[in-house]
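Predicting holo structure, flavin-adenine dinucleotide bound.
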Amino acid sequence: MSVLIFVDQADGHIKKASFEALTYGAKVAEQTGTTAEAIVLGAVQDDLASLGKYGVKKVYTVADAKLDHLDSQVFTKVIGEAVEKTGATVVIFSNNTDGKSIAPRLSARLKAGLVAGAIALPDTSNGFVVKKNVFSGKAFANISLQTPIKIISLNPNSYKTIAGEGTAEVVAFTAIVDVPKVKITATNKVTGEVPLSEAEVVVSGGRGLKGPENWGMIEELAHLLGAATACSRPVADTHWRPHHEHVGQTGVKVAPQLYIAIGISGAIQHLAGVNSSKCIVVINKDADAPFFKSADYGIVGDAFDIVPKLTAAIKAAN
Ligand SMILES: Cc1cc2nc3c(=O)[nH]c(=O)nc-3n(C[C@H](O)[C@H](O)[C@H](O)COP(=O)(O)OP(=O)(O)OC[C@H]3O[C@@H](n4cnc5c(N)ncnc54)[C@H](O)[C@@H]3O)c2cc1C
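Done. Tokens:
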């Protein structure tokens, strides 16, 4: 018995969300009296032994060039084989692009119960009950997993990474790796930005900014704060900003430490994607904008007046 954590990587580097998943998985192992192990697919440049500091004892690697890019069918089969060979009874993913495409497939393959989007450690006092957000964050569900193998995908930014001491044993895992059925012919990468789903701080703009030409001040503020930029849906629909920045019910769901909403009304569909943020700051010229009801801090004022002042104050403080 063990807890197996899938470690996500991109271009040979481990993603931040994986450190959260590793810390979480190690804690689940402690709760269930088992050991935590990790699996990494594809070539990785990072020091895998150092993942021991998050509490995992072993890291399985499968270095096959066919695994350098995500193919969920191929990945699912390899992870399924690892679960069977290692005897893992709990499998942990991050609830990000990779986790969302692999975890459900693995669940079907292993006939294992899955909780997608967990936000807390399982309650193991009476069974194995995992908490998640439902109805766009308006309620919680506590789901009892009763299958012998249990799968959890953890929402990014919902469990704090804790790094201690320790070194993991890195073990090459031999698996049959299928040839992907899908061939990637081109990849267009967005470079130089903080990935939105993993960002600790998000600066987001809405229709109140009047047009794409005014996003310079949003980008400058985001840059100063090491933040990702985001937007409301109409902003993306009108092509002021790219669609991968659109947050909300029909867009990306974020849970940063700080979400700064500028010129966004706070429609329920927008809130659905951002209401798990730890601290929400709203800047809106309309004191009756609905977003103020969800805000921790609110500034009633014109964004074109407030944002430059905020930026200048941050620069002065640095
Ligand atoms: C099925 C469905 C799904 C949807 N999914 C999403 C979703 O995922 N994400 C999403 O965002 N929306 C979504 N929407 C749209 C949503 O209902 C709202 O229409 C949208 O969020 C409004 O965007 P906004 O706040 O940028 O624009 P507006 O509603 O036009 O609000 C602009 C705000 O800017 C303020 N403002 C104007 N000028 C200034 C200024 N100079 N300084 C400061 N403030 C100013 C205004 O007071 C106003 O509050 C969805 C709608 C539907 C029906």
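Residues 154 and 268 are 24 Å apart (CA to CA).
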